[in-house]
Each structure stands twice: as structure tokens, then as C-alpha cells.
Design goal:
The structure is a homodimer of 162-residue chains. Chain A has 162 residues and is of the alpha+beta class. Helices cover 43% and strands 18% of the residues of chain A. The N and C termini of chain A lie far apart (52 Å). Chain A binds a DNA duplex (25 and 25 nucleotides) through helix 2 and helix 4.
Chain lengths: 162, 162
DNA sequence: GTCGCTGCAAAGTCTTTGCAGAGAG
DNA sequence: CTCTCTGCAAAGACTTTGCAGCGAC
């Protein structure tokens, strides 16, 4: 197997993630390829929530020799999503955005001005969600919450930037 | 103007909605057409959240002589959404679903098995959301919450239906 | 070696747009 | 009458799929 050397410095957390991914692939007879590694790495090293195309562009920039196809990005994202390693978010805008699901659960606050996404968690809300599902006889598997509005930065720049 | 006579019985609430729509159109020099009326009517009379295509199909069934095009459905939905008369939801599945935004605010519980959407509201959560936004210096404009899981019905039918 | 994976390009979806005729105001 | 709206079909945007060669195991 070829080895990619110009990766961002790896953390213990990332190594764990990588091993989980390898284990998952192995268990289903699938293969661990450079492309899959690069995609996981890029997802891990992006704080942001990326669209398939953004991810594809970043990978092309960082690994120009690899010539990763957009189809592979889509295929890998589906694979990762099926295994719950990444989560997809579909907000108002068209297209989905993906983020590593390995992170702790959290909700999203989206700035309608600049598109910035801030993550947060609130124990009280989490608790209520469980209760609501129970009350309605619903077996909760997942949930998500978004708050839309204008972030601090955009409020401050409201005068200068229109 | 031609008049559509086979509409579902109209309520006061619907009349208000219709008038709002007419007023909105008038204020921007746009026209009130049969197609727009039919689309609003169908949205109003559907408890469910509809995709543009579902809406289109229903309208074709109910008003076969009108031959409303799907393009008009899309155009009208955009129009209504821009004016905040309808809200679009984009869940995991591809495509958006629309609902009348004139209804009271509520959140959604989505069955991952059958796709059914149940609405609910929880005052406590609403309150927390405001507080969280405030704490982060975020000017909240809107929010939405979804709980995903398996509805009561699907849990019961779990044995028979696979 | 085998069999899954990849890039490419073609095919699908879903949504938007251009246009000429129809219809609201 | 004017100017917007509509249906149709063509064009776009985003995703998925088929296939032959490549590469992990």
C-alpha cells in the first residue's frame, strides 16, 4: 500500500477514528484505500461542515497527484454515513453538508448572513427531547436542532457590510 | 377571472390566508392566478408536509382540466417561501418538503421507517433555545428541531412488515 | 491472483429557465 | 391593452451508476 506522507499531524483521536474505519471496512470485506484515508483525514481536519464539492476541492488542492474523483467522494461519504461515522446536515440551502459524527452530539446554530455554523449542546433540551419522544410512543434514534439567526460578528458588521 | 368551484369548504382561517396572499401579490404588482390559488388551497388542505412533486400530483388529480405544470408549482412555492407564507423542511431524504408557515410554530418528529411526520411543541425547549441564542450573542430569527426514530405504528408492525 | 475500488463519462434526479401564447388587472 | 404568468421543453445543478483498468489484500 502506498503511504501518504504529507498529512496533517495526527492525533490520538484521529488514530482511533482511523482504526475504527479500518475495522469497519475489514468486517465487511471492503478495502482501505488512499482515497478513503484522504477523505477521512480531510473531514477530521476541517472544523467546518463541508459539502461533497468543498471536500472534493480541498482534496484536489492538498493531493493534486491523487486525482480523486468526485464520485469517490460521494461514495465514501455514503459509506461513512451508513456506518454513522459522519452525519449529514441538510439546511435550507440546496445540497447536504457533512461532518464527522464521531464528535460528541451537538446542535447547530446557523448564521443566515454569513453561513457560519456554531455548535452547541444543552442538557436540558436533550432531556426534554427524550421525554417528548417517549410521550408520543416514538422510539427515538436521533435528533437535531438548528437555530437560525445573525451571528455576533455579522451584527457588529451590520453597518459597514450590507 | 375564472372561478374554481370544486374547492374544499373554506374556513375563515383560509380566507384570511388567501387575502394575505392577494395583498402580498398586489403590493408587488404580481397577479393572482388560478394556479396560485389551487396551490395555496392544496397546501392548506393537506395536513402533511408535501414535496413539490406530491403537491403537483395532487393538483393534477383534483384539477385535471387545469393542467398545472410542475414549473409553476416550484415557482409558486418559491414565491410563498420568500414571503414566509410557507416553510420548507429539508430532512435527510433528498428534496424539500413544504408546509404552510401560517400555522403556529412547531417542531417535527420524523419516522425513519415510514416517513410520517408528527408535529409537536414544547414550551420548555422553546425557552431554552432563546436563552442559548442570547448567551452566544446570536440574534435568533428562527429555529427548527427534528427528532428521528420509529413511530408507534411502525414499532407495532415491526414483526409483520420488514 | 482475486475481487473491490477508482476515475471517467454517461445517465439520473430534482429544480430552474427561456419562450411564445394565455390571461389577470 | 399591457405586462405578468403559464406550460412546455430544454438547460442546469447535484448525485449516482456502468465499466474497464488499477490496486489492496
Amino acid at each position: 500500500m502506498r503511504t501518504v506522507t504529507d498529512f496533517t499531524e495526527r492525533t490520538v483521536e484521529y488514530e482511533k477514528l482511523l482504526n475504527d474505519f479500518k475495522a469497519l471496512l475489514k468486517s465487511t470485506g471492503q478495502k482501505f484505500t488512499i482515497q478513503r484515508e484522504v477523505i477521512l483525514d480531510e473531514l477530521y481536519n476541517s472544523d467546518e461542515h463541508l459539502t461533497p464539492e468543498e471536500l472534493y476541492n480541498r482534496i484536489q488542492e492538498k493531493h493534486p497527484t491523487l486525482k480523486t474523483g468526485i464520485a469517490t467522494v460521494y461514495r465514501t461519504l455514503s459509506l461513512l454515513e451508513d456506518s454513522d461515522m459522519v452525519t449529514s446536515l441538510s439546511f435550507g440551502a440546496q445540497g447536504k453538508k457533512y461532518e464527522l459524527g464521531a464528535k460528541e452530539h451537538h446542535d447547530h446554530m446557523i448564521c443566515t448572513r454569513c453561513g457560519e455554523i456554531t455548535e452547541f449542546v444543552d442538557a436540558q433540551i436533550e432531556e426534554r427531547q427524550h421525554k417528548i419522544a417517549d410521550d408520543l410512543g416514538f422510539k427515538m434514534e436521533d435528533h437535531s436542532m438548528q437555530i437560525y439567526g445573525i451571528c455576533k460578528k455579522c451584527q457588529e458588521h451590520a453597518q459597514t457590510k450590507q
